[in-house]
Design brief:
The complex is a heterodimer of chains A (254) and B (351). With 254 residues, chain A is an alpha/beta fold. Chain A folds into 2 domains: 220 residues, P-loop containing nucleotide triphosphate hydrolases (Rossmann fold), CATH 3.40.50; 32 residues, no CATH class. A 6-stranded mixed β-sheet of chain A has the order 6-7-8-3-9-10, sandwiched between helices. In chain A, strands 2-1-4-5 form a 4-stranded antiparallel β-sheet, with helices on one face. Chain A has a two-stranded antiparallel ribbon with strand order 11-12. The longest helix of chain A has 14 residues. Chain A is globular. Chain A starts with a strand and ends with a strand. In chain A, 44% of the residues are buried. Chain B has one domain: Orthogonal Bundle (ABC transporter involved in vitamin B12 uptake, BtuC), CATH 1.10.3470. In chain B, α5 packs antiparallel against α13. By secondary structure, chain B is mostly helical. Classes of the chains: A alpha/beta (254), B mainly alpha (351). The interface between A and B is large, with 50 and 37 residues.
Amino acid sequence: MILQARNLGWRVGRTQIVDGVDLAVREGETLGLVGPNGSGKSTLLRLLSGILKPTTGEVSVEGQPLDALPRRLAAQKIAYLEQQADTGEAITVRDAVELGRTPWLSPLQPWSHEDDRIVAEALADADLHGFEKRYWAMLSGGEKQRVHLARALAQRPRILLLDEPTNHLDVRHQLSILKLVAALPVTSIVALHDLNQALTCDRVGVMAGGRLMALGAPEEVLDVESIAEVFGVRASIVVDPADGARIFRLDHIR
Amino acid sequence: MTIAAAGQHSMARLWWRWPAGVVVLAATVFAGTCIGETAIPLSVVVQTLANKVVGATYPLDPIDMGIVWNYRLPRALVAASCGAGLALSGLVLQSLLRNALADPYLLGISAGASTGAVTVTIAGIGGGAVSMSLGAFAGALTAFLLVALLAKAAGGGVSARGTGQIILAGIAGSQLFNALTSFIITKSANAEQARGIMFWLLGNLSGVRWPDVTLAVPVAAIGLVAGVWYARALDAFAFGAESAASLGVPVRTVQTVLIGLTALVTAVMVSIVGSIGFVGLVIPHAARFVVGVRHGRLVPATALTGAAFLMAADVLSRTMIPGQVLPIGVITALVGAPAFALILLRGRRRP
């Protein structure tokens, strides 16, 4: 198990945001996290990344407790793409992506050609070729999202934690980013809103009220009854006659 | 141009900028030593430096030699250190707190220093055994500790809200200590003392001698080394403290070390020369317009610009009105504000 959480919980004041989550992530899989707004997906990702200290339970990475790991080493293993990180600095796309190399550099370990190569690759993967010299303030929401993804990729992590990476993206880039994440030789946990996108993950976890309600293969976890219970919508399954793929059609419960 | 070629790093390719910076700095110090109210020929300045530094034995007028060696040179060196130190402190706080209006006096340091200074000079605490500088230093540190404690108790920390707390705590601290200063002045000072204090508050380099140099130069150097050492960590704060943490920066440690150093550098500088405004707030922005936002370049550029700017301001303050020395804080704002306006206008093409 590359990433494991035991009885993970986080509370602010008297409000329990994440409650008793047990989770074991297998090496190389893509795990989708779905759940309504405020179900604790983002907080769970922040706990798993080590940025937030849990109030109960613990996270371990490759068998080692994450707490005991220095930040720098943790960031060499785990990259976390947060929602809506913004800056007022006149920073260029290339500058922003180069930040991804931070955990691998130190004053005594300066920038190398290898770092240049990795940054160029990350820019290409996020389809940002030709954007290197654009300033942050001149990017659209979707382009900013892709810069964040490129920064996370430049970190060369073993585990990618992505908080709604398809937010703001046009349809083509939504598809290509999910495909890219699935094809990368890394373990990824992806918070998603689109249930049809969740169907393409290896496994899916369903969050509600801070708890992990279900975890398993997409077709087992995302059935009509559980969707009605967790999201309060009526789902019907449509099969594409071209290739037999299942698609959700969602509607209000009448 | 390929992506890799575009990414050739300036730190490696442009190594010559470091020695070039040192040369520019030395030239500015030299110019500051040559220019003054009393006209002293260039040859006398050079011979004085030769006598003192390499042990040459040119026969010189001891008064001229005294002006150059004991008065102008230490003054130029302290002005340079002070400019570099304050500008670096401002830069570090702006980057860490992600607030363009952050300056070294944000943490209540300047207000605390003035309270310390008036406590010693006017209220007479310490019975003359404590110098005004020492009083200012003690006041500055006291104010900073109070502000830091308040920020911590109010939940200051890694979050966006946490960085806001230290700014708010700083405002509360500054108000408190400024009020204390006014209280002491109105209660105890006579007109002469009040005028003297006002001069000190606006910045004054006229009392500076060699012992001040041996304090100011190392402190500024420590600030510069720390800034360069943590350049990548400061870069990582561009998208906020959480983002920095996810990039492997030990946020708490970096914040504690750098804010602590900022407080120390500022307290030392303020205790030597009084509170000089404008430098810490504006020089980092000016440097950003020229070299961009990456701290590997920005930290040295800020230090150099701050040093050169304050030395130039000091020369102006001595020579602008014959027979009268203006407070240097007046010059920094009078000259600096229009200069900065120009930079703002020229930089409007950039987002």
